[in-house]
Write the structure tokens for this entry.
Amino acid sequence: MRDRAVVEVAGRPSLLTDEDLWLFNEGNHSALYEVLGAHLIRWREKAGTYFAVWAPNAEAVSVVGDFNGWVAGRNILRPRGTSGIWEGFVPEIGPGALYKYHIVSRYGWQGFKADPLAFFSEPPPKTASIVWDLAYPWTDEDWMRRRREKNGRDAPVAIYEVHLGSWRRGPGRFLTYREIAPLLAAYVKEMGFTHVEFLPGMEHPFYGSWGYQITGYFAPTTRYGTPQDFMYLVDFLHREGIGVILDWVPSHFASDPHGLGFFDGTHLYEHADPRKGVHPDWGSLVFNYGRHEVRSFLLSSACFWLDKYHADGLRVDAVASMLYLDFSRPEGAWVPNPQGGRENLDAIHFLRRFNEEVYRRFPDVQTYAEESSAWPGVSRPTYLGGLGFGFKWDLGWMHDTLEYFRLDPIYRKYHHRNLTFRGLYAWSENFVLPLSHDEVVHGKGSVFGKMPGDRWQKFANLRLLLGYMYAVPGKKLLFMGGEFGQEQEWNHEGELDWWLLSRPENEGVRLWVRDLNRTYRAERALHELDCEPSGFQWVIPDDADSGVLAFLRKGKEPRDCVLVVAHFTPVVREGYRVGVPFPGFWQELLNSDAKEYGGSGVGNLGGKWSKEVPAQNFQFSLSLTIPPLGILFLKPRGEGGLANEDSPG
């Protein structure tokens, strides 16, 4: 954040320039956190706090707090022209002061509101804002210089999705940001994940919303510490080479009375019409994206976390609910756009503007859309008509794949299309493959619990599912606990069942995910062309009766490839022939049925030599032993043509 010079306006101090007002009122200000909210300044040799808040329908605004007995009218703010912004300076107010705005509306309403741009807040259920200085001595310069290569489309991206309040806990309490930092960094690094993604860490009144109903769009939740404590967590992860993605929620906001709703006695941030302004699923309020100042507020919130907290990406929640006016609304309960359609034209404009501004200011980060419909071009540039996101969650893959895995293997051959259908659209977007928190809540059970069969088959299916996710094109995301086979549905009121790691089968899943991450990162063929059709080639797409899929993952270099053979039935298949593009020895990089992962130990003794036996339009082929409910990753070793069918092994 650049230093702001204090200017004098009508004999009073201000941080707002005429350019700020113009950008704000036209909807293009992306750094409001520099000029609105509470800022520590000096004015005429006096230290104090400058306050500025947008309340265009107010008749009077004053700051109340512990410094004036919470009495309205003692520290009044004054309007700045016709901008709708009220500002003022209160001397001798420093960091830690509690405050709110008392607003008297021109329409007769009055009330107390938390600061929409507060940098810090009281712990819920308290609701006051806190004056705070965001200075922090960052030590992640090396990461920040190199992070473009860590976030690119051709980079390995394996995301560990974390809810801070329930990953680990202290005795009867939350761990702080600073306590979590070394524990999380060591675990993520040992497991081989490249990034963590935090469920929304912005201030939210109701812990059970997991952070998805926000009141503080510029404040990390105080449940785990101060803003500097959260910066320390990000800084620590960066020093350990781990990227940080933040979940961000511009789709709706909490309706709590101290928050943004009915802010100045009018529906300022939200639509007045409940058919547009109230979210039918969650009872929260929906932003009015057509209002210029609301767009500036949201643009600034997004850029704030990338700027002040060094976030490496933003995952935007519930994009589909923003795009469609009839989202979750029955006929007659929604308002068409001016052209008579169901598309939210204002939200579309905002999302494009959001992505343009983020990539303009922070070209080395990524944005991720959680978008559940078939909206075209979500991760395509805005100049090509897209929404401009860097990546889109592939929720279609998640749904089809889990539906397939839920089936008893005897029925899977009738649903083979669930696995192959993705080939029709896999490169229409830049995809992330998510096995996220959404799949382990609201009575859905755990991912482990979705697997059919006895206990051995459940674990074999789980290892197969995880291996399959790492094998197919797309970046990876796994919710915490999934990496060791958490057996119960996620409970945000406790911590993960870490005690399960004392069981060999759960520890085996953890080791499997660790090795999947390490192999995924080491083998360029598994990530380099994730977003390009040239990075994938079917070998066996149609053996539904045997429950076998085989395909090649390819890198940019011609010989850089990995053969994947996935088997979805619980029998051993001996002498199964699979075509390969190169002669020689094919090393078995990974086998989900290895005993160290809890499997039965069926495999190929480290690899196979190819023979000049044509198969699947290839001149050479392998005769493989395919384990039950297992997946194999094989890679050619040695120079092509030097090995032959008489080679040892």
User: Anything to note?
Assistant: Confidence is low (pLDDT under 50) at residues 640-649. The chain has 15 helices and 30 strands.
